[in-house]
């Protein structure tokens, strides 16, 4: 996954707030890469409502538009 690509939220590894949990199935755009615990990659995703949050890479799937 790369900055600028569209992604859909698939699921969450951990418990999240209601606001974030409501993003399952929504499509957003990767705005930034983020190194997460253990040296893995995560991504900061911005949604059409201008909210942003970060996700582990396996919580997202690429969207082909």
UniProtKB/TrEMBL annotation:
What the entry lists under Pfam families is as follows:
Tsr0524-like
Write down what this protein is called.
Cytochrome b6f subunit family protein
The species this protein was found in: Tumidithrix elongata BACA0141
């Amino acid at each position: 996954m790369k900055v600028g690509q569209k992604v859909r939220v698939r699921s969450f590894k951990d418990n999240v707030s209601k606001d974030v949990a409501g993003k399952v199935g929504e499509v957003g755009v990767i705005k930034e890469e983020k190194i997460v615990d253990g040296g893995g990659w995560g991504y900061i995703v911005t949604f059409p409502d201008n909210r942003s949050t970060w996700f582990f890479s396996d919580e997202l799937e690429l969207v082909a538009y």
